[in-house]
Amino acid sequence: MAKLKITQVRSKNGTTKRQQDNLRSLGIRKIHQTVEVEKNPVTEGQLAKIRHLVEVEEVK
Q1: Does domain 3-59 have CATH number 3.30.428.10?
Q2: What is the sign of the dihedral through the CA atoms of 22, 27, 29 and 32?
Q3: Each residue of 9-54: pLDDT tens digit?
């Protein structure tokens, strides 16, 4: 299965509780932190809600 490399590039200040919870559930706690997660419908849905805060690239 494919993996996604997610990096937070914008601050979570001023975001909703739901967006902050999505960042936390992906394992991102601070700005410029990068995590790798499996690509599946759940993570795609979470990323749709925080797309403006992160950069996403697919890892082979």
Answers
A1: no
A2: negative
A3: 999 999 999 999 999 999 999 999 999 999 999 999 999 999 999 9
Domain ranges of the chain: 3-59
- Which tokens belong to 21? 């919870």
Find residue 54's DSSP bridge partners: 8
Asked whether the beta carbons of 33 and 7 are under 8 A apart, the reply is yes
* 59, two tokens: 């890892």
Please name the residue that has the structure tokens 């410029």.
Answer: 32
Give dist(CA 2, CA 19) in Å, integer: 24
Q: How many CB atoms lie within 10 A of CB 42?
A: 11
Integer Cα distance of 46 and 28 in angstroms: 12
